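We close this part of the discussion by returning to an individual protein. Part of our work consisted of pairing the sequence of a single chain with a tokenised description of its backbone. What the numbers capture is local backbone geometry rather than side-chain detail. The amino acid sequence and the backbone structure tokens for this protein are reproduced below.
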Amino acid sequence: MKTEEEVEELEKLIGQLEGLHSEISQLAKKSPNDGLNVFKLKLVNRVLQSGNRCLTGRYKPFEDFDEFDESALPTNSDVTMILTLYMEQAERFRSDNVVFQKGQWFYQVGGAPSNIKGRNPTRVGGEKK
């Protein structure tokens, strides 16, 4: 990550993905094949747009998927699946951008450890960007 704002955007994205996933997973358990309503779909698409800005290159879950088509409402289970994949890639990106220093985890900003505390990595990602 190049700026502290990118760290903030990633942290916000992770929180939004987790919140949406939690809520829509409940719907998917009750009615997996029901279509998501337009209001919820607009919220999901906004979060996916944010994810696409943040998760670029090898971190973007699918090259050819950006958001759901509002004219063809996706099912609850479809949305849950896509949110899960975005969550996994967001966590991989986060894990690739934290370093252990002085007994704590910090985000790397501009290629160097910042003062922004992070959590320990949970995914093995590979080479850093």
Remarks:
- The first strand starts at residue 98 and ends at 101.
- The helical segments are 4-30, 38-54, 76-96.
- The mean pLDDT is 94.
